[in-house]
Amino acid sequence: MRCFQLLALATLPLLTACSGGESNKDPVAEAKFQNEKRIGNEAITEKQERDAEFMVTAASSSMLDLELSQIAQRKATSPDVKFVAQTIVAEHAPMQTDLKAVASRKSIVLPANLGKDQAERVGELTALNGPAFDRKYLDLLDDSHERAVNDFDDMSDEAYDGDIRAFAAKYLPALKKHREALEQAADKLPK
């Protein structure tokens, strides 16, 4: 009997490791999957599918920008980079709140956490210090904001849903302003 109990205790970690599939899923991919599943079941148009894809992308990108900027508020060495980080945190937090509200009204599932690729970028940035940190932070945000500006610009005109169109139009100017601030801060960093 004692041998059976020891065997059961020894296999318990293996069983729990195998059943941990839910926690290993990429939150961004899972949100996209849930939206595609709902859309497929409700005979929704291709434009509505694009709206949902935009919302998931906007949410995951904004979460990444917030995470990177919170780190930069602590680790950046350049005052200009710290200022950019503070601006991003101050302006992306309300955007995330609005995004969640619109998504909730439209029954769009958003990711709860960063995706795997995004988490890797956070890890890469966290490992750096000094001017290398500042440069990498600005590079990551510039890339993110370039895509976001393009997406928000497109969706402010082309979103099927009026609320999503209004959301994109509302935050497009702030994203453009962030891009300009990123470029100015990058120009001031030592080469």
UniProtKB/TrEMBL annotation:
<dbReference type="Pfam" id="PF13628">
    <property type="entry name" value="DUF4142"/>
</dbReference>
<protein>
    <submittedName>
        <fullName>DUF4142 domain-containing protein</fullName>
    </submittedName>
</protein>
<dbReference type="InterPro" id="IPR012347">
    <property type="entry name" value="Ferritin-like"/>
</dbReference>
<feature type="domain" description="DUF4142">
    <location>
        <begin position="50"/>
        <end position="184"/>
    </location>
</feature>
<dbReference type="InterPro" id="IPR025419">
    <property type="entry name" value="DUF4142"/>
</dbReference>
